[in-house]
Amino acid sequence: MKGTLKPMRLASLLLPAFLAALAAPAQTGQSAQTSPQAPAPAKPKAGASQPAPFFEDKPYIRRFTIGGNASFLVPGLMKSGEQTESLASPPLQIDTKNENKGTIFGGGVTVQFFLGERYAINADLQLRRPRYKLTTTLYEGVDNPNTPGDERTVTFYTEDTRARYWDLPLLLRRYNESRYENRWKWFYEAGPVLRHVTGIRSATEKEFRGTKTCCDETPATPAHRNIYGAAAGIGLVLKDDFGIKLIPEFRYTRWFGGIFNNRAAQSRRGQYEILVSITF
What does the pLDDT look like over 216-254, one tens digit per residue? Predict the structure, then answer.
């Protein structure tokens, strides 16, 4: 009896373990047939930044910019040429010759304000320095054609005049794309221009019968103190890594009048210029 009981007790102990081993694969199969659960979302890393909305992105061109510019005129501010005028009573012939002596360089400040993403208002204040040398020869009386000499009285005047022009263009600019696009851009512009003259200085030398008298410093009288015009241009905007913008530009201005209009000394009506601006 004792010999038979020991195997039976061993079987009673092993049977529950065998049944448990058979049930484990069946439970595993049932869990595999059910839909898998979605993995938990990964936690964002510390310091990770979310992308900003479009209107909060840093633009290629800020809404308001200010800077300076340099201007190069092609050609100068005054015309060079000659003119002859004759009066019958009293008999008088006036010959004038003008030379443009002013610099072709100018410069000033520039500001720009965007009205939207592609349209902006640009205003400049530019200083220019015109200068001219006007030689006037007066022939008074009547010349006798039957004599080799000239019986008329001759007087020579040489006038050297300098001044300052203040130009204020107010232009509407249209860019080829939004100011937020991070690349170079081009634009075209148009608008009115005002020119004001100050600081007129003149020195006039007179020569009569070989005697020179220097100098009459009465300032030349301008035809207009203020004149208006219309300007149009085209340009590029280039920006470096520090946010400094370089703006090369070509601009044409048509003036509706002339500051100086003294015989051969004529202000130029058509103005061609190349501008280079640096803005922040």
Answer: 999 999 999 999 999 999 999 999 999 999 999 999 999
For residue 159, is it left (φ>0), alpha (ψ between -120 and 50) or beta?
Answer: beta
pLDDT tens string 170-200: 999 999 999 999 999 999 999 999 999 999 9
The greatest distance separating any two alpha carbons of the chain, rounded to the nearest whole angstrom, comes to 178
This prediction has a pTM of: 0.77
Count of C-beta atoms within a 10 Å radius of residue 17: 8
SS (H, E, C) the chain: CHHHHHHHHHHHHHHHHHHHHHHHHHHHHHHHHCCCCCCCCCCCCCCCCCCCCHHHCCCCCCCEEEEEEEEEECCCCECCEEEEEEECCCCEEEEEEEEECCCCEEEEEEEEEECCCCEEEEEEEEEECCEEEEEEEEEECCCCCCCCCCCCEEEEEEEEEEEEEEEEEEEEEEECCCCCCCCCEEEEEEEEEEEEEEEEEEEEEEEECCEEEEEECCCCCCCCCEEEEEEEEEEEEEECCCCCEEEEEEEEEEECCCCCEECCEEECCEEEEEEEEEEC
Which tens digit of pLDDT belongs to each residue from 134-169? 999 999 999 888 888 888 999 999 999 999 999 999
